[in-house]
Structure formats: structure tokens, C-alpha cells
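Fold it.
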Amino acid sequence: MSDHSDGGSAGDPEIEEAVVSYLRNHPEAADTLDGIVSWWLPLQRYETSKARIEAALTHLVEVGVLQRDRLPDGEKLYSCVAGRPRAPGQQ
């Protein structure tokens, strides 16, 4: 079940661009917040709280770049919406 939020949370452009860039190179990728923190974002560059990254992921869901699915254990799985990933604001 895909989760598309209608809220208006502010994103983090730096993190959003890093996620979109990763998906451009790995369009079939899908992962949980922990996996994205650990594997998608370079650890040495992002000494960032999980909350900040989760806020950026939530914003990317809200603007239609990512979709969020719930796994049976309750974890959230993030992946790009059908088609090529694009930065927020691009058509």
C-alpha cells in the first residue's frame, strides 16, 4: 500500500537532491529510512540526524518524487514513483 502524504512539510534541498541523484543512478532502488541513511547517502558527508533525512523523504513523497510503502513489520519503504526520478519542481 503506497502512502502519499498531503501535508506541507518543508524539505531539505541538499538531502532531497542526494536522494534524487542516487535514484537517477539506481532507478529500481527501494529502501527503508535506515537503509537510506546507511547506504544511499555518503556517511562522511551526512552526519545528519535521521529526523532531518526522514523530513526530506516525507517532502519528496508529498511532491510526488518518491512513494512510501508500509512493510508488514511497519517499516516504511521508499522508492521512486513510476518513471525517471526528478528533482522537486521539475516536470
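The mean pLDDT is 81.
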